[in-house]
Amino acid sequence: MPSVPDPVADTVAALTIDGDGWLVNGSRQPSPNYDDRPDPEDVSLLVIHNISLPPGQFGTGCVQDFFCNRLDTAAHPFFAEIADLRVSAHFLLERDGSITQFVPTRGRAWHAGKSRFLGRGVCNDFAVGIEVEGTDTEAYTDQQYAQLARLTRALMARHPAITPARITGHSHIAPGRKTDPGPAFDWQRLFAGAGMTGIPDPLVQES
Questions:
Q1: pLDDT per residue over 43-100, tens digit each?
Q2: Which of 59, 63, 65, 69 has its CB surrounded by the most CB atoms within 10 Å?
Q3: Whose CA is closest to 178, among 168, 187, 186?
Q4: Are strands 120-121 and 116-117 parallel, antiparallel or unpaired?
Q5: Distances in Å between the alpha carbon of 98 and those of 53, 70, 186?
Q6: β-bridge mates for residue 17, sequence order
Q7: Which residues contact 11 (CB under 8 A, 6 or more apart)?
Q8: CB within 8 A of 136, min separation 6: which ones?
Q9: Rounded Cα distance, 72 and 145, in Å
Q10: What sign does the CA torsion over 134, 129, 142, 189 have?
Q11: Which pLDDT score, from 0 to 100, does residue 198 have?
Q12: Taking a C-beta distance cutoff of 8 angstroms, is the pair 60, 78 a contact?
């Protein structure tokens, strides 16, 4: 019996990001929640987050609506708590491996909040944010790890200042305030999938 093609592997084996910072042939839902970086070429940090809306529910489309300011706040009690927030990430990676981009990487998405990395604050100025659909405690999917590795390689190719030592979690840059991507996230699996070696475990970041 012939093997069944893997749609994730077949469609994104060579992810690339164009000069404006958009994922070539990727799904786009431009968010109004972004502004200009102080230096559009100063992109030197990759921050991994997690998100689910409603909390603990996946594949609802609500994250996309949230980042684009079109969330129906009457659809779930939790949504009233976030109704006034204006946030975004550069990318959302869903459970099935689908990637949606909201902000070009040359732009400043609003994802990190109050944060610091190696003595430098305001990480939104120089960071790319990837939201991985999930929770702190539920295992992420094989498709997500595969796609995240490919996306990480594409980001490092487009923005060479993003090195293995400058890949971190939201909890690392905002300790005590944020916990994502949580203990369920396998950092070594990401590094191995992206072809990186010699990465410390746990990652060494400044609190």
A1: 999 999 999 999 999 999 999 999 999 999 999 999 999 999 999 999 999 999 999 9
A2: 63
A3: 168
A4: antiparallel
A5: 16, 20, 19
A6: 23
A7: none
A8: 50, 179, 180, 181, 182, 183, 184
A9: 30
A10: negative
A11: 65
A12: no
CATH topology of domain 7-190: Lysozyme-like (3.40.80)
Look at the block and give the residue holding tokens 């079109």.
70
- Tell me: cis bond preceding 200? Omega within 30 of 0 counts: no
Please name which of 146, 109, 141 lies closest in space to residue 21, comparing C-alpha atoms: 109
Q: Give the pLDDT score at 52.
A: 98
Kindly state the tokens that stand for 120. Answer: 């430098």
> Would you call 131 a catalytic residue per the annotation?
yes
Among candidate residues 41, 81, 94, 131, the one labeled active-site is: 131
For the record, the structure tokens of 107 come out as: 């732009």
CA–CA dist 4, 182 (Å, integer):
33
With tokens 């969330």, the residue in question is: 71
Q: Which two tokens stand for residue 89?
A: 């990430």
Give the list of residues 6+ apart from residue 119 with CB closer than 8 angstroms, or none.
206
Q: What is the pTM of this model?
A: 0.91
Residue 127 has pLDDT above 90, yes or no: yes
> How many residues make up the chain in this entry?
207
